């Protein structure tokens, strides 16, 4: 989980508005500073609820339900854009990120919260439909082949935070922050000119932090098995599923934080890196630009990529990964 630190020194000439919205099964907190900021948060809330309706997979009125049930559907430009971004991340990670994981997520019960450990035969059958290549995007027309079904849980909140920041910008807001179930994205600096300070939670202690990032115009998004999990026969199973075998990822990482200007990009990559593990994630980072990473291993070793060294503070020892 990520939180904006509570330090506040606000210019009294700035109009401040705050809003809490419950959507996508999580609590979302929005803050904006500027003229008419409260009415701008009205617009942001309308957009949040609209996206929630579009992408709620089990709702018969949603576009994702339509795609999954009909296998071919015309959708809004927003849904098409989001699915296209997801497919691009799938290609770049060689399928480690895959929104067609839906049938496997259903077997484990992570959508319904009726948790279950599936048997080998069930998993084998469900995995037959897990292949991002089964998705075809043609303008606003989405087609699924085979037994694939889409679940946008690994990227939807990142895309939404991008959109909220866009609404802020289009309406003259120059300072703001959004926290969507722990995914944090910032616009500009705080009204007093200081950088936003975003704390990264320790996976095993919700009241302690691995460190603090000082950022502006950045999304800071964390994935970790500690966020959603259940226990069965003394074994803990978490919600980040490896699409190769259908089981919760076991890569040697406790949590991964991605820092990027794009919320959607950071959201998809944080999930991917948690599945990949530290070596493959580092290799991906060295071959690609536009983001940095913080990784905590199962042995409590903390690693950050070199782009963060001037903006990351921690009381813990950490290693810097260089190119």
Question: Which key features would you list for this structure?
Answer:
323 residues; alpha+beta; nine-stranded mixed beta sheet; four-stranded antiparallel beta sheet; 8 helices; 18 strands; globular
What do these coordinates show?
There is one protein chain. With 323 residues, the chain is α+β, with helices and mostly antiparallel strands. It has a domain of 87 residues: T-fold (Orthogonal Bundle). The chain is 30% helix and 30% strand. It is built from 8 helices and 18 strands. Strands 2-3-7-8-11-14-15-16-18 form a 9-stranded mixed beta sheet, with helices on one face. A hairpin with a 2-residue loop joins strand 5 and strand 6. Helix 1 packs antiparallel against helix 6, helix 3 runs parallel beside helix 7 and helix 7 crosses helix 8. The protein is globular, with a radius of gyration of 19 Å. The two termini are 27 Å apart. 46% of the residues are buried. About 2% of the residues have low confidence.
Can you summarize this structure?
The protein is of the alpha+beta class. Helix content is 30%, strand content 30%.
Name the beta content range: 25-35%
Strand order of the largest sheet: 2-3-7-8-11-14-15-16-18
Characterize the main sheet.
9 strands, mixed
Classify the helix fraction into a percent range. Answer: 25-40%
Looking at how many chains there are and whether they match, the oligomeric state comes to single chain
Tell me the CATH superfamily of the domain at 58-144: ApbE-like superfamily
Q: Please identify the top-level CATH class of the domain at 58-144.
A: Mainly Alpha
SSE string, helix = H, strand = E? EEEHHEHHHEEHEEEEEEEEHHEEEE
Q: Would you tell me the overall average pLDDT? A: 94
Alpha-carbon distance between the two ends: 27 Å
What is the annotated CATH architecture of the domain at 58-144?
A: Orthogonal Bundle
And the CATH topology of the domain at 58-144? T-fold
The best one-word shape is globular
Q: Rg to the nearest angstrom?
A: 19 Å
Number of helices: 8
Structural class: alpha+beta
Number of strands: 18
Spans of at least 5 consecutive residues with low confidence: 6-13
């Amino acid at each position: 989980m990520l939180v904006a630190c509570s330090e506040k020194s606000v210019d009294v000439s700035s109009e401040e508005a705050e809003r809490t919205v419950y959507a996508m099964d999580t609590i979302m907190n929005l803050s904006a500073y500027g003229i008419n900021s409260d009415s701008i948060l009205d617009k942001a809330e309308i957009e949040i609820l609209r996206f929630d309706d579009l992408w709620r997979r089990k709702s018969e009125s949603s576009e994702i339900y339509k795609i999954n049930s009909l296998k071919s559907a015309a959708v809004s430009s927003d849904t098409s854009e989001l699915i296209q971004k997801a497919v691009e991340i799938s290609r770049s990670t060689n399928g480690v990120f895959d929104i067609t994981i839906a049938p496997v997520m259903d077997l484990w019960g992570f959508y319904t919260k009726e948790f279950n450990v599936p048997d080998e035969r069930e998993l084998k059958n469900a995995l037959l439909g897990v292949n991002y290549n089964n998705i075809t995007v043609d303008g606003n027309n989405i087609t699924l082949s085979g037994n694939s079904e889409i679940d946008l849980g690994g990227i939807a909140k990142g895309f939404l935070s991008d959109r909220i920041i866009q609404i802020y910008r289009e309406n003259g807001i120059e300072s703001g922050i959004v926290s969507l179930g722990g995914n944090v994205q910032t616009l500009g600096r705080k009204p007093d000119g200081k950088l936003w300070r975003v704390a990264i939670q320790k996976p095993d202690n919700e009241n302690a932090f691995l460190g603090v990032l000082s950022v502006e115009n950045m999304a800071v998004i964390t994935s970790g098995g500690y966020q959603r999990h259940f226990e069965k026969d003394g074994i803990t199973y978490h919600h980040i599923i490896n699409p190769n075998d259908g089981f919760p990822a076991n890569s040697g990482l406790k949590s991964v934080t991605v820092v990027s200007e794009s919320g959607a990009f950071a959201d998809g990559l944080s999930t991917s890196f948690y599945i990949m593990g530290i070596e493959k994630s580092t290799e991906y980072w060295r071959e690609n630009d536009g983001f940095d990473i913080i990784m905590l291993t199962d042995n409590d070793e903390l690693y950050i990529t070199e782009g963060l060294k001037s903006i990351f503070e921690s009381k813990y020892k950490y290693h810097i990964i260089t190119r």
